[in-house]
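Pipeline run #58 for the internal structure catalog. This entry was flagged by the ingest filter as a single-chain record with no existing model, so it goes straight to prediction. Upstream metadata was stripped on purpose; only the residue string is passed forward. Reviewer on rotation: M.T. Logging verbosity set to normal.
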Amino acid sequence: MTEELTISQQDLDFIQIQLEINKPYEACGVIVGTINWTINGTMANVEKVIPVTNVRRTSASFELDPQEFYNAWNEADKSGNEIVGVYHTHPFYPGTPSSWDIDTMKNNPSVWLIAGVNGIFGYVYDNGIENVKIWIK
């Protein structure tokens, strides 16, 4: 389980902009980087975030476009990175996991960044929702 994540302020700003320009719909994408072991567990080091079309086009859920997801995964792999998580937005609600998010997180235990009206927060699912500490690099 990933306990911490390092990300640039530029990438956080990009996710926040995605929230604004995609309203009233949720925006989503993948988080590309590496996972490293630390004395405290694991840390995801973000190299870039890649927007992916939300094929659901709703304000309450998202689904990554399969072809765009594949392209992002392929791009990450070619650069020696991996997809360490996903991000999505809650355009009208706080950045906490919804019941739909929690159900989906159970099948995708990577880092989830959720941008809401109150900021951007990180989570993983490990027999329940766990917070991920975000460090700005």
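catalog note: Strands lie at 2-7, 28-38, 41-52, 82-89, 111-116, 119-125, 129-136.
catalog note: The radius of gyration is 14 Å.
status: ready for reviewer M.T.
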